[in-house]
Amino acid sequence: MQLKNPIIRRALTLCLILIPLVLFGYTFQKYAINIPHWDDLAVRNSLAEFLTADSFSHKISLLFSQHNEHRIVLTRLFALLVFQLKGTLDLKLLMLLGNLSLVGILFLFYRFSRRNSLGLLALVPMTFLLFNQGLYENVFWGMASVQNFWVVLLAFVSLYFLVFSYDQPHKTYFYLAIAASFAGTFTSSNGILIPIIGTAILLFQKRYRELGIWGVASALFLFLYFFQYQSSPDKTTKADFSSPTLLLKGVLAVIGNAVDVSFVAPNKHLDLAMATGVLLLIILGWFSIQVLIRKYNINQRNNDLFLLGCLVFLGITCVGIAVGRLSYGIEVLLTSKYKINSVLILCISYLIILNSLAEHRKPRVITIAIALSICYNFYTYLAEFQHISYLRRERITDQFKIQHSDKEMPVSGIYARLQQPAATFYDALMPALQSVKDTVQTKIGIVENETGFILTDTRNDTLDISSADAGQYIVLKSDHNLYLFPCRTITASAFQLKDYINIGFLFRNQLNVGSFVSDFTKFYVQSGKYQIGTIDVENKKSMLTWTNQSINIQAVQKQKPVQNW
What's the whole-number average pLDDT of the chain? Predict the structure, then answer.
């Protein structure tokens, strides 16, 4: 039964829109931490160079310098903004700035829905799709959140202003499109698609006067992008076209990656992702023919042209990901950091289907879409909870390695100002970690393989996950070295979904634990005999236990990837 009161109906709709944003924000606030991860250190280094550069030209050169195959000007500008606001490189704030682009994408969808006379209720499914926990790798990574989210927003904004500047008496929209195209081009490598797609749109709309201006600006952007450009020195990223069938599977997997059943049926994840990719490609093909060939109302055609431009940007990006990353294995294409493209293809497909329906059919389809998107959002929270919580524990142990294992934490100068260690549970434990005293008899399972060790501490207990750091950590101590590794929390049931869909987990922060498993490599550990210890963190309390078990490690030399930064 539909609510007749428009005020109540609008209020309930706004609540539905806010729910996924609030949950997304709560998870971010709880688990995000100001600790650098991989390329964040490169952002730190370039910011340090920028701040100490003695000339304006040198600063500009640093802003536009390459990072692998990318020009990450926007990321560096945001890092500079964070420094000006906080006096340090606060990566949690950088993540927040990156994630705000998702709000921008949602607002753009809202503006588009208004142009298509769609009610606010039609926005609800896209909100639950867009703000899902499956995007966690980018969400909790400072550099990647800016690069991988903002390039999409800037592409969409540029195409929006460009398409809808058609027959506008003023050129404001058109010049905003050029500005967004410039910013997007220098945010990530796939940003170079924006001026190319924009050129195709202007040709299709037969706007030859604007095409000249756009063409000159685009040529300048692309010239600047490829000026003194160096191919990535990392040979593992080179495209491999020796197996077209495998490449096609990779493309389909990236396109359909939003549908992820690895939590409940890991053996079916790839197949279902590819099947979803096929379905979305069919929708894309059908829609492309409609826009490019069929003659219909010019305003509706421009609406569809905007959606088609966005789909082309996302589709070519997916192809580029498959081509550039397939050499690492097709499973890499199914990871969280590439999922934003698939999620947005789903959102746009939903809009395409909705706009193709008769008015009397739209309410029912919107209702079904809302129900499905809510289930999808709830499922991704359950499926990715362990990954999100483990990611935080992994960041903490990364900092421990820099700070106490390798003793490489900067203590003076600009680098110390930019990278200030985050306060963690292990700070209070450092005196106890320096020496092994009493030991406890334990039966931690130890499995050694070619590259590392797998340690398993079997438990049959409940873990209070109120604290973001809750879980177990493995300590390795030799006469000269000290290491800390995170453990994955394995639930008690063979069918792990059972341990998440219960009152204890959903409302009491209690998780049934079957075991804690730490899987670490020898690449970053010095040779020696190591005593095994465990740190159990729960209810914001940390308990260190030294066991009577030890392992002998023979270090393995790892070849570092070649980089151009």
Answer: 94
- pLDDT for 236 equals 55
151: its two tokens? 């390039």
- In whole angstroms, what is the distance from residue 320 CA to residue 144 CA? 17
Q: What pTM, to 2 d.p., does this model score?
A: 0.96
Residues of the chain with pLDDT below 70 are: 1-4, 233-240, 558-565
Residue 259, CB-side half-sphere exposure with 13 Å CA sphere: 21
Q: Find the helix or strand (DSSP H, E) in which 354 lies.
A: helix 339-355
- 3-state secondary structure (DSSP) of residue 435: coil
Give the Cα separation of 451 and 75 in Å (integer). Answer: 35
- Burial class of residue 301 in the structure, from the number of CB atoms within 10 Å of its CB (0-12 exposed, 13-18 middle, 19+ buried): buried
CA distance 129 to 20: 9
pLDDT attached to residue 437? 85
Q: What is the DSSP letter of 359?
A: G
The secondary structure of the chain in percent helix, strand, coil, rounded to multiples of 5, reads 60, 15, 25
The continuous run of DSSP H or E covering 355 comes out as helix 339-355
Closest CA to 148 of 188, 205, 202: 188
Alpha helices in 164-207 (DSSP H): 172-185, 193-205
CA distances in angstroms from 264 to 259, 261, 274, 493, 541, listed in the order given:
12, 6, 17, 12, 32
187 vs 194: CA distance, rounded Å: 11
Q: How many CB atoms lie within 10 A of CB 160?
A: 21
According to CATH, the superfamily of the domain at 425-553 is Immunoglobulins (2.60.40.10)
Rounded CA gap, 503 and 512, in Å?
A: 11
pLDDT per position as a tens digit, 95-134: 999 999 999 999 999 999 999 999 999 999 999 999 999 9
d(CA 68, CA 86): 28
- Cβ atoms of 138 and 67 within 8 Å: the answer is no
Angle at 60 between CA 54 and CA 63, to 5 degrees: 110
Task: Count other C-beta atoms under 10 Å from residue 225's C-beta.
Answer: 18
- Residue 204 burial (CB < 10 Å; 0-12/13-18/19+)? middle
Contacts with 550 (C-beta within 8 Å, 6 or more apart), sequence order: 529, 530, 531, 532
Q: Is the dihedral of CA 271, 273, 276, 277 positive or negative?
A: negative
DSSP for 25-38 reads HHHHHHH--S---T
Q: Which helix (H) or strand (E) holds 474?
A: strand 471-477
445-448, strands of its sheet edge to edge: 445-448, 452-464, 510-521, 488-491
Phi and psi, residue 407, nearest 5°:
55, 50
CA atoms of 531 and 96, how far apart (whole Å): 40
What residue ranges of the chain are covered by domains with CATH 2.60.40.10? 425-553
Q: For tokens 């931490």, name the residue.
A: 33
Residues 129, 122, 21, 136, Cα dihedral to 10°: 10
